[in-house]
Amino acid sequence: MLPQLTQSEFKTFILIYAAHIDYNFSDEEKQFIKQKTTTTEFLKMLSLFNDQSDYHSLKIILAHKNQYYHLEKEKNKLYAEITELFKVDGDYSRPERIFLDFLERMINQNDGS
Predict the structure, then answer these.
(1) Based on CB atoms within 10 Å of each CB, which residue in 14, 30, 34, 73 is the most buried?
(2) What is the pLDDT averaged over residues 15-26?
(3) Residue 81 sits in which domain range?
(4) Closest among 27, 40, 38, 20 to 82, alpha carbons compared
(5) Domain total for the chain?
(6) Are 25 and 32 spatial neighbours (Cβ–Cβ below 8 Å)?
(7) How far apart (Å, rounded) are the C-alpha atoms in residues 42 and 44?
């Protein structure tokens, strides 16, 4: 059973997921995410992320995407925050750029929900 996340929790979860794409969760990335949320929420979503396989993390994202990011304005704000996250450690890597394209396709996919 997938957890039901608030919009804030979901955004924190996506940011944590995105920060791990290059297999390096830097201190700068952690600080960036912590500035966007509460310590309690950060730790809760980090724990959720750490307890999931990549497959289940993607299922969580797919389950919540239409609920919280169905408007273009909301999607663009999320993509901008993720891009900012990727640049915060000074290494906007190829896997991070590829992930952003993947996330955009995944969120824009109309799965009938």
Answers:
(1) 14
(2) 92
(3) 7-108
(4) 20
(5) 1
(6) no
(7) 5
Secondary structure letter of residue 70 according to DSSP: -
Domain contains 113 = no
CA–CA distance, 108 with 87 (Å, rounded to integer): 23
Please say whether the dihedral angle defined by the alpha carbons of residues 34, 16, 112 and 70, taken in this order, is positive or negative.
positive
> How far does CA 30 lie from the centroid of its chain?
13
Closest CA to 68 of 59, 78, 57, 58: 78
Q: Angle 78-60-91 (CA atoms, 0-180°, nearest 5)?
A: 45
Q: Could you tell me the two tokens for 10?
A: 């979901």
User: Sign of torsion, CA 91 95 97 103?
Assistant: negative
pTM here is: 0.90
User: Mean per-residue pLDDT for 50-72?
Assistant: 90
Is the CB of residue 46 less than 8 Å from the CB of residue 13? Answer: no
Which candidate, 49, 53, 64, places its Cα nearest to that of 107? Answer: 64
